[in-house]
Amino acid sequence: MKKLSLLFTAMLVPLLVAGNASANSSVTKAMSDSSNWASWGGDYAGTRYSKLDQINAKNVKDLQVAWTFSTGVLRGHEGGPLVIGDTMWIHTPFPNKVFSINLADQSINWKYEPKQNPDTIPVMCCDTVYRGLAHADNMIFLQQADTTLVALDAKTGKKIWSVKNGDPKKGETNTQAPIVVKDKVYTGISGGEFGVRGFLAAYNIKDGSLAWKCYSMGPDSDMCMNPTKTMAWKDGKMQPVGKDSSLKTWKGDQWKIGGGTTWGWFSYDAATNLVYYGSGNPSTWNPVVRPGDNKWSMTIWARDADTGEAKWVYQMTPHDEWDYDGVNEMILADIKVKGKTRKALVHFDRNGFGYTMDRVTGELLVAEKYDPAVNWATHVDMKTGRPQVVAKYSTHQNGEDVNTKNVCPAALGSKDQQPAAFSPRTGLFYVPTNHVCMDYEPFQVEYVAGQPYVGATLSMFPAGKVTGDGTNNLGNFIAWDAGTGKIKWSLPEQFSVWSGALATAGDVVFYGTLEGYLKAVDAKTGKELYKFKTPSGIIGNVNTWKYKGKQYIGVLSGIGGWAGIGMAAGLEGDTEGLGAVGAYKALSKHTQLGGSLTVFALP
Amino acid sequence: MRPLFITAILALFTPFMVSANDYPTQARVEYVLGCMDSHGGQSYNTLYPCVCAIDKLAEAMPYQAYEQAQTLSVMIKTPGEKGGAFRDAPGARKMVKNFKQLNEDVEKLCWVNKPTAEK
Prior knowledge:
The structure holds two protein chains of two kinds. Chain A has four helices and 42 strands. Chain A is mostly beta strands. Chain A has a six-stranded mixed beta sheet with strand order 17-16-21-20-19-18, with no helix packed on it. A five-stranded mixed beta sheet of chain A has the order 1-35-36-37-38, with no helix packed on it. A four-stranded antiparallel beta sheet of chain A has the order 2-42-41-40, with no helix packed on it. In chain A, 59% of the residues are buried. In chain B, helix 3 (44-60) packs across helix 6 and helix 4 (63-75) crosses helix 6. The longest helix of chain B has 18 residues, at 92-109. Chain B is mainly alpha-helical.
């Protein structure tokens, strides 16, 4: 009897520890107060919706700039700051500085600047961007470009621990924002253009030790897949994936450099205890040399937050032939689909289809084009879940060294990482989009670790050239009904919209443009209500918070060039191609330059 | 000033309009501050030529076109695949080249780059 109870106590201890970790949800608490903006998406569901309504459709026209903050860092500023209580944390592109700002007077509480090897820059495929921080348990989590994951004391900026998440010498880098659930921080990896094999990693927040790491492809154990329990959509219903579901879809051991990187956004649902995210394109870009479906690249993943085990998967673009990365955000919302309220996951994929899934079971509910120009597939077959590829737009069927013309969307997708927003008040999703098509020519390449492994030549142009409707805009900002898969309204934008949207209870939707405008539109009609030109183009996400009774709207601007200087300052150095950051060195004497946070409020 | 090629630069994005001299105060101030900054700092020596230059630009092209040309001039430098749409759009490179030429022309006309004692 005695022995038994001892055993029982011993079993109880770890249970209690785990219990503490989940009860200690500083994150949930911070998110539940709408004065805060506590994670990239505002909440775990990634809705980018705020209950604040002081700024509304009637008075938004009176917005004024309340204050600005210059980061002093050039290059593209993606993501947006976190706000909790009287403190804001701002991140920057490489070298990934972090500023803690006192909201009372906008003074700097502390600044953290990591020392990173500049050799990281050339292996970053698409500018030296960074999309944001995570906050939990009085810690700030910084995911550096060189893959170092750092925990900082949120009050002092002192480093608590750091861990290497990858190796830039092999082309592994990081750009995405981590998230924290319970006692773990989750991060992914970039580098699909370098043959990196993608994964989701969970680190214990108390000491940075690795809890688990689950890959996008390879043997079942590498992927944390359970052949009998992990489910996928097959013949119109969810079925177990079966043994070696990935290995069977690759030639030889190509999966080892298979891509499927994880550089997008992560969402979480406490009710299902699942973390949701997407995996990117298979490597190389040349589809001819990698026959098969290349599972599980281009896939929506639902993983158990504690163990990493995959609950369900859905591959959107089997055997990708166009670089339609599947990494875009997963928005968790309860919406009506065919008259029934569903616990849905809504995802606007680069491939041009807007997917509505059941986030509990993984069932495919809706898959429709959210840009009418999309032509690479006629539709998604709802029984097999497979896109019906149009032969003349198949870069594989056309083969190596053949230029496949007028494919829509272009490789960048109908939408890239810039996250959409969802308003429960209108039931609509607000989506920043690209309206761009391309010519695509694959060619043969050899893999060398740390070297680009692209194998395709691309040329891009406005979608109007293909649709022949006489338009030449490169973007649209749309409102989408995810229950029916229909566009409610669409605002043409001259340039692609690369800024993350924000929806608020004031029935105003905000987004930024590449010209530098912050725009506010009516959530119901799309009517433009306000615009203001910030110092540079906007590729950041619009956030909102409340401090001392006042609602604020904030957005980072900065796309690497400078509006006020323009062509006059000799910025015309050739920066095409990969990693050309050095061209901006001459500007360092201009201390005022760099990305800016512009903060708005009502007078 | 060669107003002729302005038609060419704008062909892609906006139909040519007679310039309305419609630049907002903010745009003019930003230009002048940036221009002064990159030519020796704030002084009357840099103020006058920079004011002259933005006035000439505003006479040469409407604000919307200026804004588009300027945005494109920045976006065309986006590295890698992301910049593709800007580099490859028909007429885009030409537009940027012509916009640069226009800037150089007004700078020359307004003596923006004249040698100054202060360095």
